[in-house]
Design a protein that fits this description.
11 helices, binds zinc ion
Length: about 260
């Protein structure tokens, strides 16, 4: 009986070792270097990348490759081309570039629709929601983007809008459990109160008088954070000039300094 028990134990240990080895071998150990095509697309279309030094460019490329290795991108009634992939990955990396180990654990797949998408997915209240959204409930783990808008926002080098960055900022915000304009997971605790105060003050002002911040940001705190983050990454110098208070806190949130 003892022999039987020992044999069973040995068999069990062997099975555990085999299962562990199998699981390890499934993890991507090596990610191929970025292709010249992807590099050229980054250099041509992504201003954020253009402004990095050579070392940082290399890091950005690696992170784009890594992102594309674990996120599925699917075209719905459209074909996904290299530029789509590069722009989606760049939009994902830009907000969290100063967080070296970041992975979008809450995201599995990005669905790309040719233009605006169907009302059945509508979540955000006005037509902005037909350009991009982060899924919840049964759509958890899914992001939807308009292919047309994705490209337009990168082609327009002087705009303050970027729908893909907007949606990825919502995901960063969601890491603490709620999309509420306070990305508590990445924020140092002592900036939360000043950030809340500043958001409320700015939203109030936007509702009262004309602002150069997209009025969609006045919808609520979550949209405010996503909209001013687009502005911060697309036109940093302009934001610093027009809204130094916002710029300083966003710099702290995204650890740009
Ligand atoms: Zn939004």
């Amino acid at each position: 009986m003892d022999v039987l028990l020992i044999t069973l134990l040995i068999v069990a240990i062997i099975i555990i070792i085999i299962v562990r080895l199998f699981n390890q071998s499934k993890k991507p150990v090596f990610i191929a270097p970025i292709s010249e095509t992807y590099k050229q697309l980054l250099a041509q279309y992504v201003v954020f990348y253009q402004q990095l030094n050579d070392d940082k460019k290399k890091e950005f490329e690696n992170r784009v490759q890594n992102f594309l290795s674990y996120i599925k991108i699917t075209g719905v009634k459209t074909n996904v081309d290299d530029l789509d992939k590069v722009l989606i990955a760049a939009s994902a990396i830009i907000p969290i570039f100063n967080f070296p180990d970041w992975e979008y654990v809450q995201l599995n797949e990005v669905l790309l629709y040719p233009d605006t998408f169907n009302h059945e997915f509508e979540q955000e209240g006005n037509n902005r929601s037909l350009l991009g959204m982060v899924g919840s409930g049964v759509m958890n783990g899914i992001m939807i983007l308009s292919q047309h808008e994705l490209k337009q926002d990168f082609l327009n080098k002087t705009g303050k809008d970027n729908v893909a960055i907007h949606e990825f900022v919502h995901l960063v915000d969601k890491t603490d459990g709620t999309i509420d304009g306070v990305p508590a997971f990445i924020m140092e605790q002592h900036y939360i109160q000043p950030w809340l105060q500043l958001m409320h003050q700015k939203i109030k002002l936007m509702k009262k008088e004309k602002s150069d911040i997209d009025i969609y940001g006045a919808t609520n705190e979550a949209e405010f954070f996503a909209v001013v983050s687009e502005y911060f990454f697309e036109r940093p110098k302009l934001l610093k000039d027009k809204h130094p208070d916002l710029y300083i806190l966003l710099e702290k949130i995204f650890r740009k300094t």
